[in-house]
From TrEMBL:
The lineage of its organism: Bacteria, Bacillati, Actinomycetota, Actinomycetes, Mycobacteriales. Residues 73-360 form the PRISE-like Rossmann-fold domain. Coiled coil: none annotated. This is NAD dependent epimerase/dehydratase. CDD domains: 5beta-POR_like_SDR_a (cd08948). InterPro entries: NAD(P)-bd_dom_sf, PRISE-like_Rossmann-fold. It comes from Rhodococcoides trifolii.
Length: 360
């Protein structure tokens, strides 16, 4: 008897050019999924992904672009930073709503996995870290803070979409993400790599830019590959349905322990916290011209340092004056047992950026 092969599973990755989106695309393609990557760009960095070019704020354009994709799983990693939290809420809920509306007619969606982050516990950019009430490590059942927060608004939009269209959902609260991407607004691994490279090329010490609390206290981070694994697991395992999960590497560390290890990767002298924070944004005024010289000297493919380093974001994370780490018990109890070594994760990103001629 002839049998018809099963059709490959179909997925849509919204934000396919970002740190998280690229990694999810890569894992889906490797697992044999028919994968659509939605972006405003006309080409994508991951081979094997079907390009869907659309503006998330153009509802009609989204319907046209997504017609016929019929994904069973949607992975939402995109966000658009605005000038105020009110505008963040308006824009970043519209992106979800427009996606759901565009996919509603074909009724294919079974699960939507939404990536958010620890501003769920720390508060939005407008009120960051000032009203934290949760004990560390943060747990998923902590009540929402009494302040507008686009992560909360996105969750509510997700819940409404699930009720309307009948899909299951999951929310994935990542900490600072170590991964590979260029042109990303929040990229600590590449920012620190660029900073360390500038220090080496200009014979300057590698000075920790953050607070005493971050230097001495415990923290954690999230490897992009681990985040992708958890999001795909939640989309395909019933124990991941209709739940919010923290996602961090599973180890904890102090920056005073990791900083010398990063310095060794670049051959620079590590200098720790001394008296007060020394933010990168205030010290990198010459970085643009310096990086052009470095890029020319080493034949790098990107000479625009603003596409590589997000000084403000790294300053924000390393400058926090409160302990910040998450609990992974809920995820483990549900059956997701993935983990990463943070030093290995950072080293892997450095190796790839070097291999791709992003850094020397």
């Amino acid at each position: 008897m002839n049998t018809i092969p099963d059709e490959p599973r179909r997925a849509l990755v919204v934000g396919a050019t970002g740190i998280s989106g690229q990694t999810i695309c890569r894992q889906l393609v490797e697992a044999g999924w028919t994968t659509y990557g939605l972006s405003r760009q006309t080409s994508l960095p991951v081979d094997g992904v079907e390009v869907v070019t659309a503006d998330l704020l153009d509802a009609e354009g989204m319907r046209d672009a997504l017609r016929g994709t019929r994904p069973e799983a949607v992975f939402f990693t995109a966000w658009m930073m605005q000038d105020s939290e009110a505008k963040n809420i308006e824009v970043n809920t519209a992106t979800l709503r427009n996606t759901f509306d565009a996919l509603a007619e074909e009724k294919s969606v079974k699960h939507v996995a939404l990536m958010t982050g620890l501003k769920h516990y720390l508060g939005p950019f407008d009120d960051y870290g000032t009203s934290v009430s949760a004990e560390t490590p943060f747990h998923e059942d902590e009540p929402r803070l009494d302040a507008p927060n686009f992560y909360y608004a996105q969750e509510d939009e997700l819940f409404a979409g699930a009720e309307r269209l009948g899909f299951t959902w999951s929310v994935h609260r990542a900490h600072t993400i170590f991964g590979y991407a260029v042109g990303n607004a929040m990229n600590m691994a590449l920012t620190l790599s660029v900073y360390a490279t500038i220090c080496r090329e200009t014979d300057q010490p590698f000075i920790f830019p953050g607070s005493e609390t971050q230097w001495d206290g415990l923290t954690d981070v999230t490897d992009a590959g681990l985040l992708a694994e958890q999001m795909i697991w939640a989309a395909t395992d019933e124990k991941g349905a209709n739940e919010a999960f923290n996602i961090a590497n599973g180890d904890v560390f102090r920056w005073r322990w990791l900083w010398p290890q990063i310095a060794e990767m670049f051959g620079v002298e590590p200098v720790g916290f001394e008296d007060e924070p020394r933010p990168l944004d205030a010290r990198m005024g010459d970085a643009a011209e310096t990086w052009k010289t470095i890029a020319d000297k080493h034949g790098l493919i990107e000479s625009d340092v603003t596409r590589l380093a997000s000084w403000w974001h790294t300053d924000g994370d390393l400058g926090r004056d409160l302990e910040c780490l998450t609990d992974m018990t809920k995820s483990k109890k549900a059956g997701f047992l993935g983990f990463r070594s943070t030093p290995d994760s950072f080293a892997e990103q450095v190796e790839r950026y070097r291999a791709e001629k992003i850094i020397p």
